[in-house]
Design brief:
Number of domains: 1
Largest sheet: 9 strands, mixed
CATH architecture: 3-Layer(aba) Sandwich
CATH topology: UDP-N-acetylmuramoyl-L-alanine:D-glutamate ligase
Strand order of the largest sheet: 2-1-3-4-5-6-7-8-9
CATH superfamily: Ribokinase
Length: 259
């Protein structure tokens, strides 16, 4: 983990281009701004590539897919690849419909993706696996996906797992309330993009592990302080806590096991 990245993001304010869905865009933008990054949320095909070319990272979320959105993601992704900009993909609900899975596959076939973040069900769909409700994937399963697509893979759930090449990590700052707020997965995907923007594509594993740990520590603090008030207070609390989380506290409170 490189906890100093959280302070560097606040100092350097990298621009993250987010092409996400209308359900999550407000929460995603505010999470990035709270972190200290800058954010732009345009999804128009006419300007997606241009904006991606001016950004330091690109986040793609397929949670509400349309042909227009898919075209924007591919055009932006190709430009990001040309510029050496990290791309983080959220295959949100990839197993929910053939249309959505087709778009995810088209993105993966057209764009080099740096990192994929999803739930167990999302990630299983990429490999054609069907999971029973509440089932999960192992580190070995994630290794297969990471090797197949040559990407860093993040699976969020009761524990968050990160796999990239020969490196694996388990982050155990469990935050059950995350499941009760729309947009937390997309927001984490955007946070990962911001950390990759600052950490660089030569430092993928540590940047991603640090991003997930920071988000989880902020979520854990919000759950302790705000969950008793309600889910809306919790959602705002994650942004609040991420916005003021010092590197020293991230280092001391993150529960990370690497191998």
């Amino acid at each position: 983990m490189q906890e100093e990245l959280i302070e560097q993001i606040r100092s350097n304010r990298p621009l993250v281009h987010c092409i996400t869905n209308q359900v999550t865009v407000n929460y995603v933008m505010n999470m990035l701004l709270g972190l200290g990054a800058r954010a732009v949320g345009t999804d128009a095909p006419e300007e997606a590539a241009e904006i991606a070319g001016r950004s330091q990272a690109l986040m793609l979320n397929v949670g509400a897919p349309t042909e227009s959105l898919a075209n924007s993601m591919i055009e932006a992704g190709r430009r990001a690849n040309e510029m050496g900009v990290p791309v983080v993909l959220d295959p949100d609900g990839a197993g929910e419909s053939s249309f959505r899975l087709e778009i995810v596959n088209e993105i993966l076939n057209s764009v080099y993706v740096t990192c994929i973040r999803g739930t167990a069900a999302d990630l299983a769909a990429l490999n054609g696996w069907e999971l029973e409700e509440n089932a999960t994937l192992s580190l070995d399963d994630l290794q297969q996906i990471a090797d197949r697509y040559n990407v860093c893979v993040v699976m969020t759930g009761q524990e968050d797992l990160v796999v990239y090449r020969a490196s694996q990590a388990r982050i155990s700052n469990n935050v059950p309330y995350m499941k009760r707020v729309a947009g937390t997965g997309a927001a984490l995907t955007a946070v990962i993009a911001a950390f990759l923007a600052e950490g660089g594509i030569e430092n993928i594993f540590d940047s991603v592990v640090t991003a997930v740990a920071a988000f989880d520590v902020a979520g854990q603090k919000a759950e302790m302080r705000n969950a008793g008030i309600g889910t809306a207070s919790f959602a705002a609390g994650v942004i609040d806590n991420l916005s003021i989380l010092p590197a020293s506290e991230l280092k001391s409170e993150a529960k990370i096991e690497e191998r």
